[in-house]
Amino acid sequence: MKEIKLKVNHKDYHVAIEEDMRLLDLLRNRLNLTGTKEGCGEGECGACTVIMDGITVNSCMVMAFQAENREIFTIEGLEKGGRLDPIQQAFLDEGAVQCGFCTPGMVLSAKALLDKNPKPTREEIREGISGNLCRCTGYNKIVDAIEKASEYRKEE
Amino acid sequence: MKLHVVGQNNMRVDAAAKVTGKALYPEDVSLEGMFIGKTLRSHKPHACITIDTSRAEAMEGVVKVLTYKDVPHNHYGVLMKDHEVFCSEKVRRIGDPIAFVVAVDEEVASKALAKIKVEYRELKAVFDPEVAMHQDAPKLHGESNIVYHYKLRQGDIEKGLEESAVVVENTYVTPMVDHVFLQPEAGVAHMEKDTIVVTTATQYPHFDQLEIAEALEVEKEKVKVINAAVGGAFGGREDITLQIHLALATKLTGKPVKAVYSREESFIAHAKRHAMVMTYKTGADEEGKLKAMEARIIGDTGAYASWAINIMRKAGVHATGPYEIPNVKVDSYAVYTNNPFGGAMRGFGATQPPIAHEQQMDMLAEALNIDPISIRLTNAFKIGSKTATGQILKDSVPLRQCIEAVAEKLGFSVVSRGV
Amino acid sequence: MALREVYKPKDITEVLQLLDKYKDKGKIIAGGTDLIIDLKERAIDPEVLIDIATLEELKGIAFKGSYIEIGAATTFAEMMDHVITKEKTPALVKAARSIGSPQIRNTATIGGNICNASPAADMLPVLLALDASIILKDLEGEKTILLEQVLKGKGKIDIERNQLLSYVKFKAPVDGEGLSFEKLGFRKALAIAKIALGVFVEVENNKCKEIRIGSGAIHNRAIRESKIEDYFRGKILSDAVIEEGSELFQEEVRERLINRSSGEFKREAIKGIFTTAMKTALSTIKS
């Protein structure tokens, strides 16, 4: 066991971890942030995507101890004051949610993309979510939603 | 009349929960004091087995090791009850469940799996469905590996082929396919007084309830199946995977029990799209009008039947494609092998035959020097067409418009010949 | 996993002390994108992990005279965004961009790609074409060694357990020199290379003065294709010469992969990939 400090969704945590724990296990099992999903456990599907110090990572491919002193955002950290993030709203409005298992990772990949490139082309959006699989084959709607989110964010 | 749904942009009821991460999939559910369950699976495709769980059961932290001996009625399956909850004497595929360890945590459960001793006495296995059809092939269940034979006869096939100016004959092979739904199987079971509650992701909660009740020999009303959020299914969650294991575990221990499959286990646990071998003989006259089609379709249903009967019937019914053909002979089979078992997947048997009949159409067109669009328009179903099974299509047959729209988008100029 | 200890050292010295202390039981982790899978599948079983992912000393890209130096913990995303790599070695940026997915490029490092020594590692062909060296540090000091000399086979690299790969260096291409990277994968994202090639070419008086071809996924490790290089040296790089060279390459691949299921496919594919790589390298030459 080892104690680490980290920040998750603006909140400071002091938490005991096992040496062999992944960041994904820490989030899901210790902090009960189950919005982060495990689809493959080897970085192929992107369902476990979180934002760490401003960039997306697969939380199944980061050891928990590596997250010490780092700042993490998960899907649970996106709402502000009970209001959906524009990306979440756009996913709803465009019907980009089907089974929903890829959605948290998709939304976070979209956020990292839009934070860096506020007005991406459709091609850039596709590149931005190329590490996130959707097996319901809802990619077109997801790309539509990210385009719309880019507009929503401009309006805010 | 005011329509409330048609033409309206309605929000999915579960979408808000899904975009915020609040939606609970079965692996997101944790109950106080729950145990963890892990499945021991066969490493051999066909073998007689003897199981010794004593070393695993003696381990600290192991609550129970379930085997066939613990199952009151050790049979289940959507159509034929050919699955065993846990294999008793014989395994029929790699991945067949043999035992289920219930332990205090995942680490102990994993270590206990390694302590279960399974002795395999290997049997001759069969992996090619055509070979499996022979009388002297190794048998999976009973006397024959042929689960089902669908026959379709329309007109006079010999005459139709004779009258054809061109006949093309080919064999097409399609592979098994996995659904790879993004959320691997998971579930939690617990007792509510004397009712067994199984929370899982399934396509078939009411049938799961029935199968759990039958296997455990309890009243149906004493089993409750709760469908959590389902992370994709595409047919792959029609068959039972961990539902009975969990129900039995909670019933025998009195405590909540949870199981979550890894992606690897998910691959070996659930059904696959049927691999098919399709031999087609198709004849047309000089104008490209189809005269006859003969098809022999063999579906590999692997170790268990699952939906094979419905799927291979559907493959047979759809064998002609959307074309009018006066003389048709179809034989479609579902065959047991020691492969992963075939089951439902998007299209349910209607997906594979187009690979065959559409290539046949292209080859006929080429042989007759007709373009591929025209030969399809010449034969396409329209209102009033009679299908090979005798159905008269009475309304809504927009195939022609569809083909024309595709041709236009392709910039394909249709050279009409007798259309 | 039987991990006992995990460390996040504050500087290189501490890393070297830990490596020296734990030797075979210790393992460096950076991006972790290969290592964590190996841990899960128990392909490796270290007792100690030493995280260097955030060590500033091991990150960054800089000029040192005529050389470019890239810190071992520099991620592919950082390489894709850096002004030096973008201007001087677009082929290296292209190789970085071809790797995995955004999430993987955000964490996976150049040092990890080298140390993992996959035969299909995307970075290695270009680094071999650049004749890159790696700098290994231990408590005694540091030494520089050619990358080509440490690659020994699939997953095999000649680095001692007490040594830390600290950075990679190579000469920045100058006027008269061209560089390219080509990869054949089965899809756009998350594709493991079926063939990867890096080509460096130097032309003087219209003739090929120097050429270095690094290949991936057509041997048990990334290698220099010396036989093909020898063919080109001193020749005028006309279309006909490139064609003949690519046929020689086909023959080489055919012999090498004779009993491999992918042999027939790769033998065909190498011709197109190599021709494109050659022509792209030539087109990047500034005069």
Q: So, the CATH homologous superfamily of the largest domain in chain A? A: Beta-grasp domain
State the helicity of chain A in percent bands: 25-40%
Helix content of chain B: 25-40%
Number of helices of chain A: 5
Tally of domains of chain B:
2
Radius of gyration of chain A: 15 Å
The H/E string of chain A reads EEHEEEHHHH
Q: Radius of gyration of chain B, Cα only, in angstroms? A: 26 Å
On the 0 to 100 scale, the average pLDDT of chain A is 97
Average pLDDT for all residues of chain B: 96
Gap between N and C termini of chain A, in Å? 44 Å
Polypeptide structure, described:
The complex is a heterotrimer of chains A (156), B (419) and C (287). Chain A is an alpha+beta fold and 156 residues long. Chain A has helices spanning 23-30, 86-93, 103-116, 122-128, 139-155; strands at 2-8, 11-17, 49-52, 55-58, 71-73. Chain A has two domains: 2-77, Roll (Ubiquitin-like (UB roll)), CATH 3.10.20; 86-155, DNA polymerase, domain 1 (Orthogonal Bundle), CATH 1.10.150.120. Chain A contains five helices and five strands; from the N terminus they run E-E-H-E-E-E-H-H-H-H. In chain A, strands 2-1-5-3-4 form a five-stranded mixed beta sheet, with helices on both faces. Chain A is globular and about 45 Å long. The mean pLDDT of chain A is 97. Chain B has two domains: 29-122 and 180-260, Aldehyde oxidase/xanthine dehydrogenase, a/b hammerhead (Aldehyde Oxidoreductase, domain 3), CATH 3.90.1170; 129-177 and 272-410, Aldehyde Oxidoreductase, domain 4, CATH 3.30.365.10. In chain B, the strands form three sheets. In chain B, strands 3-5-1-12-9-10-11 form a seven-stranded mixed beta sheet, with helices on both faces. In chain B, strands 7-15-14-13-8 form a five-stranded mixed beta sheet, sandwiched between helices. Chain B has helices at 15-20, 54-57, 106-115, 129-132, 157-163, 205-216, 243-253, 263-269, 308-317, 353-368, 372-379, 399-410, and strands spanning 35-41, 47-52, 62-66, 90-91, 97-103, 117-122, 146-154, 166-174, 186-192, 195-200, 223-227, 257-260, 275-284, 290-302, 327-336. Chain C has two domains: 1-172, Uridine Diphospho-n-acetylenolpyruvylglucosamine Reductase, domain 3 (2-Layer Sandwich); 177-283, Enolase-like, domain 1 (2-Layer Sandwich). Chain C is 37% helix and 26% strand. Chain C contains twelve helices and 14 strands. Chain C has helices at residues 12-22, 35-40, 76-81, 83-88, 90-97, 102-107, 110-116, 123-129, 147-150, 226-232, 239-256, 263-283; strands spanning 5-7, 26-29, 48-51, 61-64, 67-71, 133-138, 141-146, 151-153, 156-157, 164-171, 177-184, 195-204, 207-216, 223-224. Chain C has a five-stranded antiparallel beta sheet with strand order 4-5-10-6-7. The longest helix of chain C has 21 residues, at 263-283. At the A-B interface, helix 2 and helix 3 of A face helix 1 of B.
